[in-house]
UniProtKB/TrEMBL annotation:
This is DUF3244 domain-containing protein. It comes from the Bacteria. Keywords: Signal. It comes from Galbibacter pacificus. Residues 1-22 form the signal peptide.
Amino acid sequence: MKKTIKNSMLVVILSVMTLAMARANDFYLSVKKDDNRTVDLFIEKTNQPLAISFVDARGEVLYNYKYKELPTNVKRYNFKNLPTGTYYFVVESETKIEKVPVVLSENETVVKRGKTTTIYKPYFRKDNNLLSVNMLSIDESPVDVKIYNETTNQLIHEEVLKGEKSLGKRFDFSNVNGVYRFEVTHKGNTFYKTVSL
């Protein structure tokens, strides 16, 4: 009986670990064994908006598609007509942008998952006249927040958030109304959000 309970606990622990690993990687890429120019994108099913693009080394978009809800969790791409070189799969969700290099040579296609670049996006939450801005900064690099009056384009507030992996700030707009534009910059990437109060 003790052995059965112990084995059951082990199965539960392994299931939880597998789920945690699956959540850590929202997607992965796999090159077909019998066709080295075909890449399968396996992506976790989600009902959140998602954008998938394939770009070349100059940043030119070769393929781009936006999904409100993924119809399937596997997408297949064939690159037999592309010249050799480095390309990038870009998968963008509401919370982050991941860019994975894919190197096409004459004889093979190599997915360089270890060279993935991840850009986290700010999260905005409005609660009556309070607006919260949260941003993940894994390397604790600073995040610059600017607020503009959308009508006059006048900068009304600027603040640099720093020193933590998870940065956040609440802004109280109880005494004002109008339309405001937030500009959140992190490591050279700027995100915009317009709110009416």
